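U., I forgot to send this yesterday:
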Amino acid sequence: MQKLDPKRIDPRGRKVKILATVGPASRSPEMLARLFKAGVDAFRVNMSHGEHSDHEKTIKAIRAMEKDFHRPIAILADLQGPKLRVGKFKDGQAVIRHSGHFTLDQNPEPGDETRVQLPHPELFGLLEKGQRLLINDGKIRLKVIRADDQEILCSAEVGGVISDRKGVNVPDAEVPIPALTDKDRKDLAFAMNQGVDWIGLSFVQRPEDLAEARRLMGGKGALCAKIEKPMAVRRLDEIIELSDGIMVARGDLGVELEPQEVPPLQKKIVNKARTAGKPVIVATQMLESMIESPAPTRAEVSDVANAVYDGADAVMLSAETAAGDWPEEAVTIMHRIARQVESDESYLERVRFLDTPPDATTADALAHACMTVADTVTIEAITVFTGSGSTARRVARERPNVPVLVLTPSMKTARRLGLLWGAHAVATKDIGSFEEMIAKGKRMALRHGFGRAGSKLIALAGVPFGTPGSTNLMHVVTVSGDELENHES
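Result:
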């Protein structure tokens, strides 16, 4: 029998990854460990809430857990972004009448049922007649009658109670504000100092929004563009090209678009990111009822399942694990849904329905060949040797029917791959020869539960070793009984 470290997390038995948000319900080291054992592959630190001191404790706890479980764990720091908000009211709130008029202006005096301050001067003179303003996640819907540089007169298509500092969405215009606020810059500097692996950039509208974040990151970490604005959808190809990953942030996206527009758009974004070989996360309200209930609705189960069938790299839990009553149960349910979907005999056909033709490079051709060999011969895993992770992304883009065991000398790369479909990354010493590569690939496959005596593995690497972008070698190997004995001794 193969001897396994009792603290090591075995392969999950699924290829889609689970990203869980940390918050008051889950930030203790004990709960973080329980969530990881239940199936979490990566943790999201939401910079919109909490203090830096709280986030620092969370990050330290996750890094300590890596040592306990001998597994690299990805951390994504999600920036708040430029949230537009109304000012305050005389009584803390007011009621906007259905079909009545309501004015947004630059007067700092407390508002009432007829007007309120909008402390964002960049919006005045920008909006035009007929454009929409959505307040409090779309619960109040205003349409512009007239706008100038002092006030915006609106009619209330949907009225209701409005209170202090409620959020404002402007779906019909590109708002000339940067994607990074002063708070975001401070949070980004903190996250880089803490060594997080991914940065989530909120409310991206244009490709240029990614440039400042890149500059401030200084070559560290990976950048995930959150698609939650209609303006971002219009320039989606450019944004995907300039990012390292994409998040389908359905919360604000669902506010600014009609509800029926979101599902096909989700599939479009997932497909485009997959075609580009960039990890794509489906997020927001996936198991929303589990904030208070120990069981999800059938519709929520179908929602998660559809994201898995679409071939998303990761699915995300938000308030379910950050503030909910059942964080561990939410992870367990999501893990079970994913495994059930991936065991469906039609899963592979559906996930490969999207055509992802290889680029005209040796590396892409070999990645495609790995998938073909794994479909033809009984293969336990594809073992990829990589420094940057690019070879692993190429292989994962093909959606092979076996796991991808990624061996890398870089812990940063191993952690970053925590959001990549099918990847089981291991940080290990670099290799110097073909023979050493084959021996280490077999040994690591045995150690991490990807094989036994007689198992076949595919090894993918570049020669000469240690040269970026040199992937040029694919080799099929068989694990022998002697190697199994050497592993166990």
